[in-house]
Design a protein that fits this description.
The complex is a heterodimer of chains A (about 1150) and B (about 190). Chain A has about 1150 residues and is mainly α. Chain A contains 46 helices and 2 strands. In chain A, helix 9 runs parallel beside helix 23, helix 22 packs antiparallel against helix 23 and helix 37 runs antiparallel to helix 40. Chain A is globular and about 105 Å long. With about 190 residues, chain B is mainly alpha-helical. Helix content of chain B is about 55%, strand content about 5%. Chain B has 12 helices and 4 strands; from the N terminus they run αααβαααβααβααβαα. In chain B, the strands form 2 sheets. Chain B has a two-stranded antiparallel sheet. Chain B has a two-stranded antiparallel ribbon with strand order 3-4. Classes of the chains: A mainly alpha (about 1150), B mainly alpha (about 190). The interface between A and B is large, with 84 and 76 residues.
Chain lengths: ~1150, ~190
């Protein structure tokens, strides 16, 4: 496994030769390894390999510098040869290969590699699939076919996405922002197509095919007095004449309940389709919004990485046009500057009075213009109706002034708002928001005032009509009509006299609004005998909406041509002979204002929704309009526009657009629904003539055409008995879902915080290690030997610990000595681990970062990467239970070490030289460092270590017998394991290095003792620095060392050598001087205490230790400068402890 | 398209489709565009030849891109490290920049594009270069040193979770995955 993985690492780096990249590799694999290793013995090899690979892959998905296919294939082929013919295993393998194939494209490999991997996987699948059962083979073949088909279909479908290439082209020139407008347009186009199909298939076509032909009924004939002008251009233009009496409008549809041979229920269909239009729009909108919000990770919206996004996501890679690129770059610079400024001035308060007053003024202006526009619309509608009353013949302008004025306002007002917004000095984004909100309000206001005025006009029109016909007046009668209107005595008296005074009352009625209009409707109804077609208010509304839509289209085209195209032409060709730079100063090129344009689309769609019920062909018209708009706009954008400076964020705004659209839909639906629910349909025209209400058609159908039981059921369902509880239930459901959503959000937040906390924890650990390693790197130069020795001792200790309780027997440990032994063992870890842990730590972070290490050191580092990675990965899993996780790693590192070990000798030599040279200066520094490391270690690793240590110390003798062989079964910590090996292999090949080599060779256990000795020979100082500094007994320390070694050899009676460590420990815990004999016991206590602490709450102590650590590090990094200071600190440390040291020696 | 399509073996085309996020048309188009970059005599074997970086950068899609050199470097598998691209590299690039590529892979490559010194982390120098790339070389558009300092500090504050003074891949992906615009703007369409 280990080997395979290393192969993987080698292969994984074909393109990037980064050292840290390699580190990461190790991380990945080490993290993956435990899972794999945990799966079990070699017997289950293939199944294991699958899991292994998957695990590796999962990990690899995160760290994307991952193992390449080669390792897979190597494993696969290797294993498959050995593997049995167990179909289950084969199946799993194949499954795995398929998985590889299915998401291979998601891997960041170069193509060659992917290709190889894919081919290999395919080969394997092909080869082994046959061995499986036949059904599985068929399944696989079927799946393959299906996939091919899907691909084909996908390729096919792509062709039919309208304007795909066009949009892509725009996208590539202007970026995604502009493209989002066109995508939105296309989406609207899609919706309108569906609406068109709905109305066309269920309403228009049946009417055309099966309905009564043109001219057959009164409502389908052009009245005689109009027939002459029915084909005039201006009549057609104002949608009168033939157009008015066509399927375009509500009035044309027949009132027969069933038409054609099949008995198609046209009125019912008309009503249902009218409702379905809204329902469909709602559903599709909400669906789209839900999808969008899912995509945009709405839950994470509270996380804001303003700066990062501005930087990392700033560039729009689609931009291919140099001009667009320029303006984009400028926009990016602006936004970055803005952000910086904001950050800088966040706390500063500005002169608020001026800005606030300015903003108030601006808002007043905006409100005034809104009110003005609404008034103007109302006035125009009013005026046109007065004109109609006064004149027989209207000019073209008079006929169209309403739509023209509305369109003009929609065109001009946004620019005015923009000017006003400049006053406010908001942040651009806020400005944009305000602008959009104002424009939306304006559009809505326009539509609403228009529709209200229209409804009024409908009434007045019918009234005036009647007025023309009848001069006599009977005001009282009319008044009674008016009052009773709600009771619907409706067709009351078709009395010509009735309307006499209506003009007077009309003025009132206009102001009184809808109730009056209601009554007037009744009046209209009463006049059907005279002039039926004029009383069809539904047709009238439909006409107006269609007219508005047409005029709007014309204005859009005009504005595109004028504002964009001709301006662009002028700017381009006149700029040479003009006195200022036209391109950059005043007229410039037209900007493509995404937001406004999108709003315009929304507005347009709102008109469609508003009028669709009264003019079934409106969606069809809108489809044409959108197609035209698409081509025109895209042409204009490509030829004469530059992208908006203020780039409106594309994907986020998508939902914003949709939200506006939804809002619009709702508001546009209201008048229609209101009219349907409130007004009585025209008597003489349309499918619902003669009914009280339009929706009566449903109940009527149910009553007449459904079985009676269904009737009763409906009656029950619609009764309050059912409706009220249902409503309640709905409310409860909403509340429930909402609370669930809230709680989910809450847990989401919690989890996120937890992840963050844990990640920081882990990172801290890594930093600790890195720090320790950096420290030690410096230290390494000086005293590699010692460390190794320590490690070797340590490792032996560790290795032997676990199972070999029997070993204790070897070494006669009487109960009485127990205490002593313990102290020893514990003292060892303090010092030894310090060296041990510190070293591996160096590898991870930082080979690049710390420039210090020589090449030789580097090799060692690499060798030890695995250790670090082990540690790291366990840390990644965020567990305090490092122990458990550490176990599985063992196998991997141990193999690696074998190789690594070979490199070590080099390292040693180099180091030794270094150390010899730098010995003088280095020693004290090292001294200063080691305690820190020790401290760190104590806190961090106490838990796993404790037991092993105790046993270990006892087992040292035992070790010589079963040296390296033990290792594998030994104590789980990979770190130790690894260390264990080094002694045998490293040392044996280089016997010449030390004088005591022969000794070593003779007796293995001696090596442990011997190492220290050699060390001491080389650097006596570092070891017992405390003693040196504190007491100044340099000789003493050497002696001590000697004693110490002997003690190792002789047994464990010798507490003498340990004391330094012991003392350190004690010093940490109990700074005050204390009595010799008790010190050991106290030591133990302290140790156990700290142990328990570390076990129970690992994090806090770690942190604290970190702090200490980090401080140390900093000084370390500046080590060259501070070398002189260092000794002091060490001295200080030493100063407090001399007593103990001495004591222990004694 | 038909002429050049015949040069791409069928099965290879299928494999390319499986290995990239591109549709058949897009691959063929890419092939066409790619072979247009080559001199005439080499078009026959455009699958195996490499297009030098200077040629690649003449593509309008890359021309305006401030990261063009980085993009070439990241996607080039040239052993000579001259950032030349083979057709497969080219496809790789288009695949990563295509519409349907996953956010993961996009952000991974974005990271590599931003990692100017290829050391696996974004450090201060990388960020500085990145900003300079974005702002261009103009005197007035360039950020001055205090602004730069502030910007980098803020960026690290936001994204550097482990506070090691650099942004590593996972930190980067964390930030990027929350950026609503990234997926839509990290695209190149032929």
């Amino acid at each position: 496994m280990g080997l395979e993985l290393t192969i993987g690492t080698v292969w994984g780096l074909p393109t990037m030769e980064m050292t840290s990249g390699k580190c990461k590799f190790h991380l990945v694999q080490a993290a993956a390894a435990p899972m794999a290793a945990a799966t079990g013995s070699a017997a289950v090899k293939t199944a294991k390999s699958c899991k292994k690979q998957r695990a590796a892959k999962r990990q690899a998905g995160i760290y994307t510098y991952q193992e390449p296919p080669h390792s897979n294939s190597d494993e696969d082929t290797g294993e498959e040869k050995a593997e049995s013919h167990d179909p289950e295993q084969i199946f799993q393998n194949i499954q795995y290969q398929k998985e590889v194939m299915s998401n291979i494209r998601c891997r960041p490999w170069p193509m060659r590699q992917k290709l190889r991997a894919l081919r290999q996987a395919k080969e394997i699948v092909l080869k082994y699939e046959g061995r499986l059962t036949r059904t599985r083979g068929y399944q696989a073949a079927g799946a393959e076919l299906w996939r091919k088909f899907i691909r084909l279909a996908y390729n096919f479908v792509v062709i039919f996405i309208p304007w795909e290439m066009r949009i892509k082209k725009i996208e590539s020139h202007f970026g995604s922002g502009v493209a989002s407008y066109f995508i939105f347009l296309r989406w609207l186009f899609g919706i309108n197509i569906v609406l068109t199909i709905m109305t066309g298939a269920f309403v228009v076509l049946p009417e055309l095919l099966a309905g009564a032909p043109f001219g057959s009924t009164l409502s389908k004939t052009i009245p005689k007095e109009h027939i002459a002008s029915a084909q005039d251009l201006d009549t057609i233009w104002s949608l009168g004449g033939y157009l008015q009496y066509s399927v375009l409008f509500y009035g044309y549809y027949g009132r027969d309940r069933r038409i054609g041979k099949a008995g198609y229920r046209l009125p019912l269909a008309y009503f249902l389709v009218g409702m379905a239009v809204f329902a469909y729009s709602f559903i599709i909108l909400l669906k789209k919004m839900a999808k969008n919000s899912r995509m945009s990770l709405a839950s994470a919206s509270d996380e804001n990485y303003t700066f990062c996004w501005r930087l990392f996501c700033a560039w729009d890679y689609l931009i291919g046009n140099p001009e667009a690129a320029e303006s984009k770059a400028a926009a990016i610079v602006n936004s970055i500057r803005e952000a910086i400024l904001e950050e800088q001035e966040k706390k500063k308060s500005k002169n608020l009075a001026v800005t606030i007053s300015l903003r108030i003024i601006a808002n007043i202006l905006v409100l005034l213009s809104l009110a003005g526009s609404i008034y103007i619309i109302y006035f125009v509608v009013d005026r046109s109706q007065r004109l109609e009353r006064a004149k027989k013949e209207l000019t073209l302008w008079e006929k169209n002034e309403v739509s023209v004025v509305v369109s003009l306002i929609t065109m001009i007002a946004p620019s005015a708002f923009e000017l006003v917004a400049a006053l406010e000095m908001y942040h651009p984004r806020t400005t944009l928001r305000f602008q959009l909100a104002r424009v939306l309000v304006l559009y809505l206001g326009n539509l609403y005032s228009l529709i209200i005025a229209l409804l009024d006009k409908v009434d007045s029109m019918s009234v005036t009509d009647s007025d023309v016909n009848s001069n006599a007046g009977n005001s009282t009668h009319f008044l009674s009509t008016k009052t009773l209107s709600k009771d619907n005595f409706s067709t009351s008296v078709p009395d010509v006299q009735m309307k006499s005074n209506s003009i007077v009352t009309l003025e009132e009625s206009l102001t009184q609004g809808l109730t009056v209009s209601d009554s007037l409707l009744n009046n209209t109804a009463s006049f059907n005998s005279q002039n039926p077609q004029d009383q069809c208010w539904e047709t009238y509304v439909g006409q107006e909406m269609l007219k508005l839509s047409i005029i709007d289209m014309i204005f859009t085209v005009a504005s595109i041509l004028l504002i964009d195209f001709f301006r662009g032409l002028c700017v381009r060709y006149l700029s040479d002979c003009w006195c200022w730079d036209l391109e950059s100063k005043f007229p410039e090129y037209g900007e493509f204002k995404i937001a406004e344009n999108v709003l315009h689309l929304v507005y347009n769609q709102g008109m469609i929704w508003m009028g669709a019920f009264f003019s079934p062909c409106l969606p069809a018209f809108n489809v044409l309009k959108l197609i035209g708009l698409m081509y025109l706009r895209s042409w204009a954008v490509l030829t004469c526009n530059v992208p908006h400076q203020q780039v409106f964020r594309a994907s986020r705004s998508n939902n914003f657009y949709l939200a506006m659209l939804l809002f619009m839909l709702f508001l546009c639906m209201l008048p229609t629904i209101f009219a349907i629910a409130r007004y009585k349909p025209s008597l003489s025209c349309g499918p619902f003539s003669g009914q009280e209400k339009i929706y009566d058609i449903v109940s009527e159908t149910i009553q007449n055409d459904f079985p009676s039981w269904f009737n009763t059921v409906i009656a029950y369902i619609s009764s309050p008995v059912v409706v009220l509880p249902a409503l309640l239930l709905l409310f409860m459901l909403i509340y429930y879902l909402q609370s669930i959503a809230r709680s989910l959000k809450f847990t989401n937040n919690q989890l996120r915080m937890k992840i963050q906390a844990e990640r920081t924890e882990d990172k801290k650990k890594v930093v600790q290690m890195a720090v320790a390693r950096i420290q030690n790197l410096d230290g390494n130069d000086k005293r590699p030997e010692q460390e190794n020795d320590l490690i070797s001792q340590e490792s032996s200790a560790w290795s032997s610990t676990p199972r070999t309780n029997g070993s204790v027997l070897n070494f006669e440990s009487p109960a009485s000595k127990g205490i002593r032994i313990h102290t020893i063992s514990q003292s060892v870890p303090q010092a030894v681990p310090s060296a041990d842990t510190a070293r591996p730590a160096t590898a991870a972070p930082t080979a690049p970062a710390s420039g210090t290490p020589s090449a030789s050191v580097a090799s060692v580092q690499k060798a030890r990467n695995d250790q670090v990675t082990n540690r790291y990965s366990s840390a990644v899993h965020g567990s305090a239970s490092e122990l458990c996780k550490a176990k599985p790693y063992t196998a991997v590192p141990s193999k690696k070490q074998i190789e690594d070990v070979h490199s070590e000798p080099l390292f040693r030599r180099g180091l030794r030289q270094v150390s010899a040279e730098a010995f003088e200066a280095g020693a004290p520094v090292v001294v200063g460092r080691s305690p820190c490391a020790a401290r760190y270690f104590l806190v961090n690793e106490k838990e796993p270590r404790r037991k092993p240590l105790r046993t270990a110390s006892r087992l040292q003798r035992h070790l010589r017998k079963d040296d390296s062989g033990d290792i594998i079964e030994l104590y789980p910590r990979s770190v130790r394991r690894y260390v264990v090996r080094t002694p045998c292999q490293v040392y044996s090949p280089h016997p010449s290095e030390d004088e005591e080599d022969e000794e070593e060779l003779r007796r293995e256990f001696m090596s442990r003792s011997h190492r220290p000795r050699s060390l001491s020979d080389l650097h006596p100082a570092p070891r017992f620095y405390i003693g040196e500094h504190g007491d100044g007994h340099i000789l003493m320390s050497k002696d001590l060392a000697r004693v110490h070694y002997k003690s190792w050899n002789d047994g464990f009676e010798l507490d003498l050598d340990r004391p330094p460590y012991v003392y350190r420990k004690v010093h940490l815990n109990y700074p005050e001087p204390r009595v010799k004999p008790k010190s050991k016991q106290k030591l133990e206590q302290s140790l156990t205490e700290s142990d328990s602490i570390s076990i129970e709450s690992s994090s806090d102590p770690q942190n604290s230790s970190n702090d200490q650590y980090i401080q140390v590090i900093h000084s370390k990094e500046k080590y060259p400068k501070f070398t002189k200071k260092k000794p002091k600190t060490s001295v200080n440390l030493g100063m407090s402890e001399p007593n103990e040291l001495v004591c222990s020696n004694v | 398209m038909g002429g050049s399509a015949s040069l791409l073996p069928r099965d290879l085309l299928g494999e390319y489709q499986e290995l990239t996020f591109l549709s058949k048309q897009e691959i063929l188009l890419a092939y066409k565009r790619f072979s247009e970059l080559l001199p005439k005599e080499e078009r026959e074997i455009s699958c195996s030849t490499r297009v030098p970086k200077s040629q690649i950068l003449t593509l309008p899609e890359l021309r305006a891109n401030p990261f063009q050199h980085q993009i070439c470097r990241v996607f080039s598998t040239s052993e000579a490290r001259d950032d030349s691209m083979s057709f497969e590299d080219f496809l790789d690039m288009l695949s990563v920049f295509s519409d349907s590529a996953t956010l993961d892979i996009k952000s991974h490559y974005a990271f590599r594009i931003f990692d100017f010194d290829e050391d696996g982390v974004l450090d201060r120098n990388d960020l500085e270069k990145l900003v300079n790339c974005l702002t261009g070389q103009g005197e007035e558009s360039r950020l001055n040193s205090t602004e730069m300092e502030q910007l980098i500090r803020n960026i690290l504050e936001e994204s550097d979770i482990d506070k090691d003074g650099t942004i590593n891949l996972s930190e980067f992906q964390h930030v990027i995955s929350r950026c609503p615009d990234f997926a839509s703007s990290f695209k190149i369409v032929l």
